[in-house]
Amino acid sequence: MTVQNIRPGSKRTKRQMGLTIFLGILCIFFLLPFIILLSVSFSSEKDILLHGYSVLPQHFSTESYEYLFKNATGIIQAYKVTIITSFVTMIGAVLLDALIAYPLSLKRMTGKKWISLYLYFTMLFSGGLVPTYILIAKYLNLCDTYLVYILPALISPWYIFMMRTSFAAIPDGLLEAAKIDGANEYTVFFRIVLPLSKPVLATVALFTFLTKWNDWNTSMLYINDENMISLQYLLQRIMENITMLQNSERDLSGYMSVSDIPSETVRMAMAVVVAGPALLVFPFFQKYFVKGLTVGSVKG
């Protein structure tokens, strides 16, 4: 009897150990590109040209970061603008999308099919670049303000449909019981619906944050003030300047040859500077991320 109990457990333990080792090796392969990215950013341009990419730097160098942070004040200001707009947009988008999705998830709401159709229509057709620019720049006068980053991204039909599906999965009996106890619609929404929908809320929050964090075209179209440009657009301009200088035959004031500009290592340093904060945010949402994608799947 004892032997029979040990064998299955032993097999299960070996299976779990094998699976753990396999997943560990898989994680190393997944992390390898990030390790190489970090390694190249701390390598010298000469080593990259001679030896190519490597897991560890041939010679440790911070020249790429020194070149990148020559305009430290501008990068810090761009960080400030990007962080503020990303977090404010994330919070506002989650709240507004949830407020729209909740009524659409209720069976008793009249006209919800037409509202859903209207929202779906906006996913297929947009006003276009020129009308959008005229609206934002001429009529709303949002150029060179924080609102030009925030307002256009506050409502997303796709996220509304994700939330609607998640809210509809909450049992009606639970909501009715709360109303019998004296709760109004706002109490039901904030005290019951939202706490039970953390996975989909976290998913929408993460997607909204990453979308706004990687936004550079808003700065290109609507921002003329150097103190209001986003981090992505600033780094893109730095890279464009490097490319322009590399295509030129002139020297930089006689001190540095154009070929000596650390272009490849600067690219990797830019990736580290951009991806760092986003990677720090992701673990806080990881618990709900996969579940939120499943729960919020759009169905008819």
Offer a concise description of the structure.
This protein is mainly α and 300 residues long. It is built from 14 helices and no strands. The chain has helices at residues 2-41, 45-51, 63-68, 72-105, 112-124, 129-139, 147-150, 157-168, 172-180, 185-196, 198-213, 217-222, 231-246, 263-295.
Task: Give an account of the 3D structure.
With 300 residues, this protein is mainly alpha-helical. The protein has one domain: Orthogonal Bundle (MetI-like fold). Helices cover 73% and strands 0% of the residues. The chain has 14 helices and no strands. Helix 1 packs antiparallel against helix 14 (263-295) and helix 4 packs across helix 8 (157-168). The radius of gyration is 26 Å and the shape is flat. The termini are far apart. The relative contact order is 0.12. The model is unreliable at 1-6 and 296-300 (pLDDT under 50).
Characterize the biggest β-sheet. none
* Count of folded domains: 1
CATH hierarchy, class: Mainly Alpha
Q: Please give the share of residues in helix.
A: over 70%
Low-confidence spans: 1-6, 296-300
Label the CATH architecture.
Orthogonal Bundle
How many beta-strand elements? 0
- CATH topology type: MetI-like fold
Return the average pLDDT rounded to an integer.
Answer: 82
Spatial separation of the terminal alpha carbons: 53 Å
CATH superfamily descriptor: MetI-like
The radius of gyration over CA amounts to: 26 Å
Number of helices: 14
Shape: flat
Beta-strand share of residues: under 5%
Q: N-to-C SSE series?
A: HHHHHHHHHHHHHH
Structural class: mainly alpha
Membrane topology: Multi-pass membrane protein
Subcellular location: Cell membrane
Protein name: Carbohydrate ABC transporter permease
InterPro entries: MetI-like, MetI-like_sf
